[in-house]
Each structure stands twice: as C-alpha cells, then as structure tokens.
Amino acid sequence: MIEFTDVVKSYPEGNDALKGVSMQIEDGEFCYLVGPSGSGKSTIIKLITGEIKPTSGAVHVNGYSLERIRKKEIPYLRRTVGVVFQDFRLITNMTVYENVAFAMRVVGAREREIRDRVPYVLDLVGLAEKHQRHPGELSGGEQQRLAIARALVNNPSTIIADEPTGNLDPAMSLEIMSLLEEINNLGTTLLVVTHAQDLVERFHKRTIVINDGLIVSDGMDGYYGYENQ
Q1: Domain-embedded: residue 179
Q2: How far, in Å, CA of 14 to CA of 8, rounded?
Q3: Which of the ends of the chain has fewer CB neighbours closer than 10 A, N or C?
Q4: What CATH number does the domain containing 200 carry?
C-alpha cells in the first residue's frame, strides 16, 4: 500500500513541490497520476522510491515509513517497487535476457532463480523469442516491453510507470497500456504517470490529478474531471 498523509516537500531553492498531499493507493489498485509539468508528479515518484524524504508529513510504502527510513533499508524497499522509465534505461551491450537477469543479480538472486524467472517474465511481455537480441535491434515498443520485464522480474508488489507511452505511436501505446492492465490483473499495484489524456479516458481507472503541488481531483472522472468541479 502507498499512503501519503499531509506531505510537504520543499527544495533548498525555496519552492514547495508538494503542499500537503494526502492519498492512499491500496494493494492491487491501478491508478493514474496526471497533471501539468512541474505539478509535483516527479517528486511523488522520488518519495515513493526513497530517493528523497518529505519535509513534513508521512509517506508509507509497502510497510516502510519513508520519512524515517534508514539508508540500509532502502534497497529492500526498492525490491518491492519496480520502476519503468520513459527513456527505458536499458544496457545496450547486453541481450534482452541479460538485461532482465541483471536486475535479479543486483538484488542477490541465485542463478537457478534467474534461469527460472527470466524466461517466464519475457514470455509474459511477449519477448521470449527475442531473448538473444540486443536493445538496439528492438522496436521502441519492444524496448518498452523489455523495460517493463526488468521492472517486473523481481516480483515487486508495486510498479510505477513514468510516462510509459511517451515515446511510442498510438497503436503501440495501446499495446503497452493493455500489457500494464494485464500485469495489474495478476495482482500487482500499478501507478501510471502520464500526460496521455486519450489513454486515461480509454482505460477507465482511478485518476489522481495534481496541480501546483496539490491534489485537485481523485476519482473515476478521468484526466479533466477536476475542471468541472
């Protein structure tokens, strides 16, 4: 579960990125986080992953209290949260298989576990037949699928997808969103950060709208539901 309680985050230059955010995302939910650039979305991601701490308020993620988490606990927190980045962040000189296996090795997984888990995840995202290819040999959509596989391979309870369709054409964007929906149906909590209004409206899920550091809408009304309030 992800829970923010009256969270304020101020940066040294003086601006308040979050101005008292409270929200709760239950285990197994699929939520969108939307809002204009500079509204506070990236700060929320960094708080969830333990990259930064709140200035005040409380952040709880999968049993960890982020406002007082110890440095040695952060790797354990991050095993519960997979992140899919817009720019993929793949290792170009590794094969598809090696990219996903690497994500398991860095958390200390055994080789037997890797041999069992990686093929399963590659099959789930539709890349089983391309396990020996390198990222440069894949299409943009396939690279995004690989990024999703890498985020998924350590079986996190939560996945954050940061603009997962930002570099993709409309048809491929639909495929990626359908894949994320399938992963959610398997029980993984999904938080999708996006500007893609059409996808938010098409895949009808809970939508949290943030603007100027404050949540202005939270419900099933879609991207612009708050404009009618």
Answers
A1: no
A2: 12
A3: C
A4: 3.40.50.300
